[in-house]
Specification:
Blueprint: H1 8-11, H2 24-36, E1 43-47, E2 54-62, E3 68-76, E4 83-89, H3 104-107, E5 111-115, H4 155-171, E6 176-186, H5 188-199, E7 205-209, H6 216-222, H7 228-237, H8 242-250, H9 254-259, E8 265-270, H10 278-287, E9 297-302, H11 312-324
Helix pairs in contact: 2-4, 4-5
């Protein structure tokens, strides 16, 4: 796959105007206020994994609408807190799987919470365990067009709220330093990470890896790959709904969330990525922290990679980078 997007030097200065609604902040303030009016109902049950150096817990907490959201929490064994924490979000279609699959952050000394993504977990990996009780109108198979006619009904309004509540849950734990919570994720998980970065102040760090859910209009104009192709497919059938669809998505754009972020950030981008095109990633990166002052940020560039990005190379970079932060 050759380079197909903007030239690398153009990407570095790419600052598109996006269609951000005037009531963006009010919409999310009301959404999170409603979610936080419900008790977290946080439950942790230790599970036996046969691993001697970490302890793992089956976690349940109340997300959007009070719906039960599952997660795995893994922490170093026999280490007293308070510890720093990393909350991680998953890629499109995957579930939390098994706790033995997610050990890097705990072995680096962090409390690690991996949030299951509601309604997903059957496309790859070892499965998910969280349903999505909310329905939607007609949609293309996948998740991106569920509730596409109204931001209040959209699937990602629920997921982003779940993610904020996951951070709330981790910050409430006695053995976690609430001022030292970072968020991370790849692809869809990177897009969720960006949403949290703009909705939760005072994070220690933000690590979106080849993030999805950014600059939707640009994405649909330059790639036919799924999942952005779900929007194209929907609009090819619902021909008169273009502006309505993009209005809904304007409440869910990683670029808008990135502008509101205030924590240090380490992004990654792959320049041959047709799933999450480089210009959509740079639109979020170049706007990151625009409303704050002197936000530390960096981006790791993988020039010859597609959507796999840096994989373990990027995780190694993240572990080292996070350890350098004050």
């Amino acid at each position: 796959m050759p380079l197909f997007d903007l030239a690398p030097e153009a990407l570095e200065t790419y600052l598109p105007q996006i269609d951000e609604p005037d009531d963006f902040d009010a919409f999310w303030s009301q959404t999170l206020g409603e979610a936080r009016s419900v008790d977290l109902e946080l439950r942790l049950e230790q599970v036996e994994t046969g691993l001697a150096l970490v302890h793992s817990y089956d976690v349940t907490f109340a997300g959007f609408g009070g719906h039960p959201i599952k997660a795995w929490l893994t922490r170093p064994a026999d280490v007293t807190g308070p510890l720093p924490a990393v909350v991680q979000f998953l890629g499109y279609g995957g579930g939390r799987g098994l706790p033995v699959e997610h050990l890097a952050w705990a072995n680096a000394g962090y409390v690690h919470l991996l949030m299951d993504t509601r309604g997903q977990g059957s496309r790859w990996g070892a499965g998910g365990h969280t349903g999505d009780p909310a329905g939607s109108g007609p949609a293309v198979p996948g998740y991106l067009t569920r509730g596409i006619g109204d931001p209040a009904e959209h699937y990602y309004r629920r997921v982003f709220t779940d993610a904020v509540r996951a951070v709330d849950a981790v910050r409430s734990l006695d053995d976690v330093d609430p001022t030292a919570v970072a968020v991370a994720g790849t692809s869809q998980g990177g897009g969720i990470t960006l949403a949290v970065s703009g909705l939760v102040p005072g994070l220690r760090a933000v690590m979106p890896d080849v993030p999805f859910l950014c600059h939707y209009r640009r994405a649909t104009e330059i790639t036919g790959a799924m999942p952005y192709g779900e929007i194209t497919q929907y609009l090819a059938v619902h021909r008169g709904e273009v502006e309505r669809v993009f209005r809904t998505l304007s409440y869910l754009d990683g670029v808008s969330f990135a502008r509101r972020a205030d924590a240090p950030a380490l992004f990654s981008v792959a320049l041959m990525d047709t799933t999450c095109p480089p210009s959509t990633v740079y639109a979020a990166y170049n706007n990151y922290g625009a409303r704050a002052s002197d936000v530390v940020k960096d981006i790791e560039v993988y020039p010859f990679n597609q959507h796999e990005g840096g994989q373990a190379h990027q995780l190694t970079r993240q572990i080292g980078w996070l350890a350098t932060l004050p």
